[in-house]
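Why do we care about 3D structure at all? Because function follows from shape, and shape follows, mostly, from sequence. That is the central idea of this module. The next example makes it concrete: a single protein chain, its amino acid sequence, and then its structure expressed as tokens.
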Amino acid sequence: EHEFSAVDQEGNLKYYNTKKTALHDVDGLLTGVLGQARDITTQRHLELALALENRRSSLFQRMLEAAATATSVGSFLADVLTIAHELFDYDRGGVYMLNPDGRTARLVSAQGDSRVVQEQASSVPADEEPFSRVYQNAEPFFSNTWHDPGSSGRPDDPPLTLAVVPLVSLGRVIGSLDMAWHVSSKPEEEWQEALAAIAREITIGMDRIGSEEHTSELQSRQYL
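And the structure:
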């Protein structure tokens, strides 16, 4: 008994379970093989989806714990981007925070392929596409055909899949979660929802850390 996969005539990947047994005559001589095959594609897809969901739940649990226990913004963002990288396998990811002037956002934490991360902008204009809709309207931006000038600036560079999700605190955009892939196989609806959830956890964690740091500072002043 074994399982195997094959591509059908329509180009779809199918999974099969096969069972085979030897046939013998009355004298014990091998006369043939009896076999059967069963299409288990639906079952396998359900199992793969369940495994993926279990893994995602485990990673999100790690993110919730990081948001509840981190003692510094820097270590918290590094942990979140590490978990996000495990979830989405992006080529580069980063968190940008809006500067006080509201015109630019600076990169405060980044992770991914070292060469690609080096090409990531250290600051982005908050009033230019695609960031304007994110920072001014609190709307996420997703594109599978984004042309990033990068370090070469060549118009023939292959497009990226780009996701920019706003970080919103007390109804105000304070930054964004940015991710880019050279090739993305994620179903758009699925990863947009997950990225929005990660953005919320980033904001919750940063607000908690900021509140604790503020309380600690007030207590320190009180004892001076």
